[in-house]
Fold this sequence. Notes:
About 40% of the residues lie in helices and about 15% in strands. The protein is an alpha/beta fold.
Amino acid sequence: xxxxxxxxxxxxxxxxxxxxxxxxxxxxxxxxxxxxxxxxxxxxxxxxxxxxxxxxxxxxxxxxxxxxxxxxxxxxxxxxxxxxxxxxxxxxxxxxxxxxxxxxxxxxxxxxxxxxxxxxxxxxxxxxxxxxxxxxxxxxxxxxxxxxxxxxxxxxxxxxxxxxxxxxxxxxxxxxxxxxxxxxxxxxxxxxxxxxxxxxxxxxxxxxxxxxxxxxxxxxxxxxxxxxxxxxxxxxxxxxxxxxxxxxxxxxxxxxxxxxxxxx
Length: 264
Protein backbone atom coordinates (compact mmCIF):
# COMPACT_ATOMS: atom_id res chain seq x y z
CA UNK A 1 0.00 0.00 0.00
CA UNK A 2 1.36 3.35 -0.92
CA UNK A 3 2.07 5.96 1.72
CA UNK A 4 -0.63 8.32 0.38
CA UNK A 5 -3.27 5.60 0.64
CA UNK A 6 -2.24 4.74 4.20
CA UNK A 7 -2.52 8.43 5.12
CA UNK A 8 -6.03 8.65 3.66
CA UNK A 9 -7.13 5.53 5.54
CA UNK A 10 -5.70 6.93 8.77
CA UNK A 11 -7.54 10.21 8.28
CA UNK A 12 -10.77 8.33 7.58
CA UNK A 13 -10.36 6.36 10.81
CA UNK A 14 -9.77 9.58 12.75
CA UNK A 15 -12.88 11.15 11.27
CA UNK A 16 -14.87 8.00 12.06
CA UNK A 17 -13.67 7.96 15.67
CA UNK A 18 -14.46 11.66 16.06
CA UNK A 19 -17.93 11.08 14.64
CA UNK A 20 -18.54 8.21 17.08
CA UNK A 21 -17.23 10.27 20.00
CA UNK A 22 -19.51 13.19 19.04
CA UNK A 23 -22.53 10.89 18.91
CA UNK A 24 -21.62 9.38 22.27
CA UNK A 25 -21.22 12.83 23.80
CA UNK A 26 -24.56 13.96 22.37
CA UNK A 27 -26.25 10.82 23.70
CA UNK A 28 -24.68 11.32 27.12
CA UNK A 29 -25.84 14.94 27.21
CA UNK A 30 -29.37 13.96 26.18
CA UNK A 31 -29.45 11.28 28.86
CA UNK A 32 -28.21 13.73 31.48
CA UNK A 33 -30.92 16.23 30.52
CA UNK A 34 -33.61 13.54 30.67
CA UNK A 35 -32.43 12.37 34.08
CA UNK A 36 -32.25 15.95 35.36
CA UNK A 37 -35.76 16.67 34.11
CA UNK A 38 -37.05 13.47 35.69
CA UNK A 39 -35.37 14.33 38.99
CA UNK A 40 -36.92 17.81 38.90
CA UNK A 41 -40.39 16.42 38.24
CA UNK A 42 -40.02 13.96 41.12
CA UNK A 43 -38.77 16.76 43.41
CA UNK A 44 -41.57 19.16 42.44
CA UNK A 45 -44.24 16.47 42.74
CA UNK A 46 -43.31 15.83 46.37
CA UNK A 47 -45.60 18.53 47.74
CA UNK A 48 -46.43 19.17 51.37
CA UNK A 49 -49.88 17.58 51.82
CA UNK A 50 -52.93 19.40 53.09
CA UNK A 51 -53.67 18.52 56.70
CA UNK A 52 -56.88 16.90 57.85
CA UNK A 53 -58.08 20.30 59.07
CA UNK A 54 -57.62 21.70 55.56
CA UNK A 55 -59.49 18.82 53.95
CA UNK A 56 -62.37 19.26 56.39
CA UNK A 57 -62.51 22.95 55.40
CA UNK A 58 -63.47 21.86 51.87
CA UNK A 59 -66.98 20.99 53.07
CA UNK A 60 -69.83 23.48 52.75
CA UNK A 61 -71.56 24.73 55.89
CA UNK A 62 -74.00 27.42 56.99
CA UNK A 63 -71.49 30.18 56.25
CA UNK A 64 -69.64 29.09 53.12
CA UNK A 65 -70.44 27.11 49.99
CA UNK A 66 -67.50 25.11 48.65
CA UNK A 67 -67.42 24.01 45.01
CA UNK A 68 -64.57 21.58 44.32
CA UNK A 69 -63.93 21.59 40.57
CA UNK A 70 -61.24 19.99 38.42
CA UNK A 71 -59.47 23.29 37.77
CA UNK A 72 -59.95 25.08 41.10
CA UNK A 73 -61.82 25.18 44.38
CA UNK A 74 -64.29 28.03 44.88
CA UNK A 75 -65.52 29.37 48.21
CA UNK A 76 -68.54 31.69 48.27
CA UNK A 77 -71.04 33.03 50.84
CA UNK A 78 -73.69 30.49 51.82
CA UNK A 79 -76.45 33.11 51.96
CA UNK A 80 -76.77 32.91 48.15
CA UNK A 81 -75.76 36.54 47.78
CA UNK A 82 -73.99 37.43 44.55
CA UNK A 83 -70.46 38.64 45.32
CA UNK A 84 -69.20 41.54 43.25
CA UNK A 85 -65.58 41.00 44.24
CA UNK A 86 -63.44 37.97 43.45
CA UNK A 87 -60.07 36.78 44.69
CA UNK A 88 -57.83 34.22 42.96
CA UNK A 89 -55.19 32.66 45.19
CA UNK A 90 -51.95 30.95 44.11
CA UNK A 91 -50.49 28.33 46.49
CA UNK A 92 -46.95 28.36 47.82
CA UNK A 93 -44.22 26.30 46.21
CA UNK A 94 -44.58 22.54 46.63
CA UNK A 95 -47.69 22.91 48.79
CA UNK A 96 -51.01 21.18 48.12
CA UNK A 97 -53.34 24.00 47.04
CA UNK A 98 -56.08 22.65 49.32
CA UNK A 99 -53.95 23.52 52.35
CA UNK A 100 -55.18 27.12 52.15
CA UNK A 101 -58.87 26.24 52.53
CA UNK A 102 -59.12 27.16 56.25
CA UNK A 103 -57.96 30.75 55.71
CA UNK A 104 -59.61 31.33 52.34
CA UNK A 105 -63.07 30.24 53.46
CA UNK A 106 -62.89 32.94 56.15
CA UNK A 107 -62.55 35.52 53.37
CA UNK A 108 -65.49 34.05 51.46
CA UNK A 109 -67.65 34.16 54.59
CA UNK A 110 -67.31 37.95 54.53
CA UNK A 111 -68.97 38.23 51.12
CA UNK A 112 -66.34 37.34 48.52
CA UNK A 113 -65.90 34.75 45.81
CA UNK A 114 -62.54 33.10 46.44
CA UNK A 115 -60.83 30.59 44.17
CA UNK A 116 -57.64 28.70 44.92
CA UNK A 117 -55.96 27.19 41.87
CA UNK A 118 -53.78 24.09 41.58
CA UNK A 119 -50.60 24.73 39.61
CA UNK A 120 -48.43 22.57 37.38
CA UNK A 121 -45.71 20.66 39.23
CA UNK A 122 -46.86 22.41 42.42
CA UNK A 123 -44.93 25.54 41.35
CA UNK A 124 -46.96 28.65 40.53
CA UNK A 125 -44.30 29.87 38.09
CA UNK A 126 -45.58 27.23 35.67
CA UNK A 127 -49.19 28.48 35.88
CA UNK A 128 -48.95 32.25 36.19
CA UNK A 129 -52.04 32.71 33.99
CA UNK A 130 -54.26 30.39 36.02
CA UNK A 131 -56.33 33.36 37.20
CA UNK A 132 -57.47 34.00 33.63
CA UNK A 133 -59.50 30.79 33.64
CA UNK A 134 -61.27 31.76 36.84
CA UNK A 135 -61.98 35.30 35.68
CA UNK A 136 -63.51 34.00 32.45
CA UNK A 137 -65.75 31.58 34.35
CA UNK A 138 -67.30 34.28 36.55
CA UNK A 139 -68.16 37.26 34.31
CA UNK A 140 -70.53 38.66 36.96
CA UNK A 141 -67.59 39.62 39.21
CA UNK A 142 -66.90 43.35 38.93
CA UNK A 143 -63.60 43.61 40.79
CA UNK A 144 -60.82 41.05 40.75
CA UNK A 145 -57.90 40.63 43.10
CA UNK A 146 -55.08 38.10 42.98
CA UNK A 147 -52.69 36.94 45.63
CA UNK A 148 -50.72 34.06 46.97
CA UNK A 149 -48.51 32.60 49.62
CA UNK A 150 -44.73 32.66 49.24
CA UNK A 151 -43.91 31.64 45.64
CA UNK A 152 -47.61 31.95 44.85
CA UNK A 153 -47.49 35.64 45.68
CA UNK A 154 -44.68 36.14 43.19
CA UNK A 155 -46.75 34.46 40.48
CA UNK A 156 -49.77 36.58 41.39
CA UNK A 157 -47.74 39.77 41.03
CA UNK A 158 -46.50 38.69 37.61
CA UNK A 159 -50.08 38.04 36.52
CA UNK A 160 -51.32 41.37 37.86
CA UNK A 161 -48.61 43.28 36.02
CA UNK A 162 -49.85 41.89 32.70
CA UNK A 163 -53.62 42.05 33.27
CA UNK A 164 -55.28 45.43 33.65
CA UNK A 165 -58.49 44.03 35.18
CA UNK A 166 -56.68 43.18 38.43
CA UNK A 167 -57.49 45.74 41.13
CA UNK A 168 -54.83 44.71 43.61
CA UNK A 169 -52.38 42.07 44.82
CA UNK A 170 -52.30 40.33 48.19
CA UNK A 171 -48.97 38.93 49.40
CA UNK A 172 -48.98 36.38 52.19
CA UNK A 173 -45.37 35.96 53.37
CA UNK A 174 -44.22 37.01 49.92
CA UNK A 175 -42.97 39.84 47.75
CA UNK A 176 -42.70 40.64 44.01
CA UNK A 177 -39.84 39.62 41.76
CA UNK A 178 -39.51 43.08 40.19
CA UNK A 179 -40.93 46.61 40.36
CA UNK A 180 -43.70 46.13 37.77
CA UNK A 181 -46.44 46.77 40.34
CA UNK A 182 -44.77 50.03 41.34
CA UNK A 183 -44.29 51.13 37.73
CA UNK A 184 -47.95 50.42 36.93
CA UNK A 185 -49.16 51.67 40.34
CA UNK A 186 -51.11 48.51 41.19
CA UNK A 187 -52.37 48.45 44.77
CA UNK A 188 -50.80 45.87 47.06
CA UNK A 189 -50.82 44.62 50.63
CA UNK A 190 -48.07 42.56 52.26
CA UNK A 191 -49.28 40.40 55.15
CA UNK A 192 -46.59 38.59 57.10
CA UNK A 193 -45.83 36.81 60.35
CA UNK A 194 -43.20 38.29 62.65
CA UNK A 195 -41.81 34.79 63.35
CA UNK A 196 -41.44 33.88 59.67
CA UNK A 197 -38.09 32.18 59.11
CA UNK A 198 -38.31 32.31 55.31
CA UNK A 199 -39.96 35.56 54.24
CA UNK A 200 -38.21 37.48 57.00
CA UNK A 201 -38.98 41.06 57.97
CA UNK A 202 -35.61 42.07 56.53
CA UNK A 203 -36.52 40.62 53.14
CA UNK A 204 -39.95 42.22 53.26
CA UNK A 205 -38.48 45.60 54.14
CA UNK A 206 -36.16 45.28 51.15
CA UNK A 207 -39.20 44.59 48.96
CA UNK A 208 -40.76 47.96 49.80
CA UNK A 209 -38.75 49.54 47.00
CA UNK A 210 -40.49 47.22 44.50
CA UNK A 211 -44.02 48.17 45.57
CA UNK A 212 -46.10 51.33 45.17
CA UNK A 213 -45.46 53.96 47.83
CA UNK A 214 -48.92 53.42 49.32
CA UNK A 215 -48.56 49.63 49.65
CA UNK A 216 -49.77 48.37 53.01
CA UNK A 217 -47.69 46.15 55.32
CA UNK A 218 -49.62 44.20 57.96
CA UNK A 219 -47.76 42.23 60.64
CA UNK A 220 -49.27 39.19 62.31
CA UNK A 221 -47.49 39.14 65.66
CA UNK A 222 -46.17 35.66 66.41
CA UNK A 223 -47.21 34.23 63.06
CA UNK A 224 -44.80 32.18 60.97
CA UNK A 225 -44.51 31.10 57.33
CA UNK A 226 -46.30 27.75 57.23
CA UNK A 227 -49.34 28.75 59.27
CA UNK A 228 -50.79 30.77 56.42
CA UNK A 229 -51.78 27.32 55.22
CA UNK A 230 -52.43 23.98 56.90
CA UNK A 231 -49.69 21.64 55.78
CA UNK A 232 -47.46 21.18 58.81
CA UNK A 233 -44.10 22.66 59.71
CA UNK A 234 -41.82 23.88 56.91
CA UNK A 235 -38.06 23.47 56.94
CA UNK A 236 -36.29 26.75 57.63
CA UNK A 237 -39.32 28.29 59.32
CA UNK A 238 -39.53 29.42 62.94
CA UNK A 239 -42.00 28.25 65.55
CA UNK A 240 -45.18 30.32 65.68
CA UNK A 241 -46.24 31.97 68.94
CA UNK A 242 -49.93 31.99 67.99
CA UNK A 243 -52.29 29.24 66.87
CA UNK A 244 -52.89 28.45 63.22
CA UNK A 245 -56.55 29.38 63.67
CA UNK A 246 -55.59 32.82 64.94
CA UNK A 247 -53.16 33.35 62.07
CA UNK A 248 -55.80 32.35 59.49
CA UNK A 249 -58.26 34.75 61.10
CA UNK A 250 -55.83 37.67 61.03
CA UNK A 251 -54.68 36.93 57.47
CA UNK A 252 -58.28 36.79 56.26
CA UNK A 253 -59.28 40.00 58.05
CA UNK A 254 -56.25 41.92 56.74
CA UNK A 255 -57.04 40.71 53.23
CA UNK A 256 -60.69 41.76 53.45
CA UNK A 257 -59.72 45.16 54.88
CA UNK A 258 -57.56 45.68 51.80
CA UNK A 259 -60.43 44.75 49.48
CA UNK A 260 -62.79 47.13 51.27
CA UNK A 261 -60.33 50.00 51.03
CA UNK A 262 -59.84 49.49 47.29
CA UNK A 263 -63.51 49.04 46.37
CA UNK A 264 -65.23 51.59 48.62
